[in-house]
Amino acid sequence: MTANTTSDSSPITPDKPVTIDSQSELDEFVDEHSVVLVDFYADWCGPCQMLEPIVERLAERTDASVGTVDVDANQQLARTYGVRGVPTLVLFADGEQVEKIVGVQQEDQLRTLVESYTK
Question: Is residue 53 annotated as part of the catalytic site, yes or no?
């Protein structure tokens, strides 16, 4: 996974969620972007399906980079981050995990949380 860069060599924030399939991909994604929101989800999860359009809008409309992790395909990665229920959102700022939110959240609450780390 290689990020595009701007002329000042900082990575361009993707405007769509990026699928993450391994610890190394997640580490690289977090290292490349200053604020990263990761959605741990499962295809069979109704609340995850409700959260999906919100996560997509956050990717499009905020300065955070958004990643998604399918917990069924990446069980070890989910365990590493203490994901016991889905959806779980993990927020990273400057390479460090700063928040973990379980369950469906309102878009404005998530946007406010994300923007508190992007300014």
Answer: no
